Amino acid sequence: MLAFIWNNILVNPILNGLVALYQIFGSLGISIIILTLIIRGILVPVVAPSLKAMKKQRDLQPEINKLKEKYSYDKQLLAQKQMELFKQHGINPMSGCLNQVIMILVLIALYNVIRKFTLNGTAEELNNGIYFTALKFAEGTIIPTKFLYLDLAKPDPYFGLALLSGLLQFIASKMTIPYVELAEKAAEKTPAKSDDIAMAMQQQSLYMMPIMNVIIGVTLPAGVVLYILTTTLFTIVQNYFISGLGGLKPWVAKAKKLLRKNK
């Protein structure tokens, strides 16, 4: 039952979308990029509310820092006061978890599709999941997996996609936590010189997610990593239009100063 739901809600629709794009463009790499952009576009109404909630939370950071100073002697009371503040402004700190769950599900489904498309899939096996006769492949069709210098069925031999994916993920993570420096200063005033759970999670995600992207990029087929890279780039653009540069703002300001000095 679960396999039926999984295949018919995620895997087969993604497979049909990728096949349709491949029939149009004749390139598996370009098809993966365009399909990723389409999927992320469809998910904008789901993702945007949580991004706006994160922006609200960032805007409240001065008040959060005041609470940290006021209740530094009692972390449990501090957490309670923070939750009251979030509730007062209609913020759910866990709202971003839904985004991550959706992205992981789509990633796993796309990985399954790319495996069917490149690693162990015959034309007959692919045709079993294709809805429309016009999209089905002729018997014995071999689908080329070359894209630029990559073989999309195998890991990137030069790790270029993996490193670029990690860099973009760091930028995306940095954009979501613009007040890390202020929060760290507030944390130093607590007895244990440590911050609340939210701060710890932010710090971990800032570095762990890029590291995970690199590890994934080194081990998984390049076609899957191409999806991760494209979706991360989309996330950066989406974050910019919804909540601005965030934590990148100081870096951008410093870069502008350096450019002015060099002129």
Automatic annotation (TrEMBL):
TM ranges: 20-48, 97-114, 206-229
Membership in a protein family: Belongs to the OXA1/ALB3/YidC family.
Designated name of the protein: YidC/Oxa1 family membrane protein insertase
InterPro entries: YidC/ALB3/OXA1/COX18 (IPR001708), YidC/Oxa/ALB_C (IPR028055), YidC_ALB_C (IPR047196)
CDD domains, per database record: 5TM_YidC_Alb3
Main location: membrane
Keyword field: Cell membrane, Chaperone, Membrane, Protein transport, Transmembrane, Transmembrane helix, Transport
Topology in the lipid bilayer: Multi-pass membrane protein
Record has Transmembrane as a keyword: yes
GO cellular component term of the entry, any: plasma membrane
Domain Membrane insertase YidC/Oxa/ALB C-terminal: 29-242
MF terms in GO: membrane insertase activity
Keyword Thylakoid set for record: no
GO BP: any one term: protein transport
Compartmental location: Cell membrane; Membrane
Domain of life: Bacteria
